[in-house]
Amino acid sequence: MTPPPSAWHELALHWHAHVDLRASCSRSRRRRRPVAVLFTPQAAAAWLAGTVQRYRSETVTVRYNPATGPAPTDSDSRDSCGDHHLLSLGYPLDALILTTNGELYLHLDPLDPRACPYHRPERHDSGDNHVF
Prior knowledge:
Mean pLDDT: 75
Distance between the termini: 36 Å
Number of strands: 6
Strand order of the largest sheet: 3-4-5-1-2-6
Number of helices: 4
Shape: globular
Structural class: alpha+beta
Helix content: 25-40%
Order of helices and strands: HEHEHEHEEE
Largest sheet: 6 strands, antiparallel
């Protein structure tokens, strides 16, 4: 039986976005407030692309997590449509930005709303993305 459209947002994944100065695991990130909660794969892919772009002037290289699928070696050829596809399948996405000042770790962790410690669908009926 298919749930009614009003219940779809309760079953859908959403993504918690984190920016860290050191490597971390999804379990430890889950206990911390995300910098953004994204409700569509497109929004999550756009957040990743926008965050990489924001640090472009000080970036030496960008490395994407190879465990989530094939990643181009040239950051300019990174396809956000490919990111969108991986996210829509429920994969996390991670990127390491090596800058002239150090390292930045970007994480997009998929969560089922029932497993989310910080956000509940009933608090976000609009379906909009949220930045904390």
